[in-house]
Amino acid sequence: MIPSTTALRALRQTLRQLNVSPLSAHPATAAAFVFPVRHYSMILSDLRDIRTQHTNKKRVGRGPSSGKGKTSGRGHKGQGQRGGHRPATNFEGGQTVQAIVNPEKGFKNPLMKHFSPLNLNTIQLWIDQGRIDPTKPITLKELYDTRIVHGIKDGVKLLDRDGDQLKVPIDITVNKASRGAIARVEALGGKIVTKFYTKEGIKFITRPHLFPNGHRLAGPTSRQDIEYYRDPAHRGYLVDTVKPGESPSLYWYKKHDVVKKKTEAEALQQKKNKELRKQQAANRIF
Hints:
The chain is mainly alpha-helical. Helix content is 31%, strand content 6%. The protein has helices spanning 5-17, 27-32, 40-45, 98-101, 120-128, 140-145, 179-187, 199-206, 223-230, 264-282, and strands at residues 116-119, 156-159, 171-174, 176-177, 191-194. GO terms for molecular function: structural constituent of ribosome.
């Protein structure tokens, strides 16, 4: 087969790009080199559809051998045999549908938060096993690394289950704490602080390697959270923001001054005025 002029021209150009001399200069080198010729026209001619990509239309009523003859796969008589109207998806033959007879009850509270429970007896068990060092502050990072809590969603709440088993003072920071847990920890000389974290903040505290550029911890925004962490009874970290005379509530009020006791002269004068008003009422002419 004699190559065409176009093929020879393309071969000569390719050899020039590869710094290979023409055929006349180095016949041995040129004979060893095989130019990969690819005919795109052949590729286009071989294009075919995938057989499973397209399905033929189902032909019904074409005899029993087709499998869809006679009744065309609809069965004998009835609503399913007729064309046109089809019942609704929740139609149950005419009876009252179950969505009305047995409806869903209750609701999902959008303000509900799921706190992982942490009991004082579990902390003492971890301390006895050497998994937690009570001489160092205990934060969510230590609780997560020691696997004392699993799957922290909205935070950790410290509870007073078997609190008498706790024998060591601890310095712990959690999201919430019960009154019994606070009393037990402070009775042993420990310290407890409740702090607010968002889900992203909890992720940053427990797994800081996921935030190479750092992360700014957000504060509480709802009134319920702000008032909780401003309350000294909850050992909140926002107690310092409450000014003297204020209440943890956002609708704070100043404590009223103690009312001075009335003197004997003032009490006597008030009694006289009262009797005088009674006499005036009795002598009133209607």
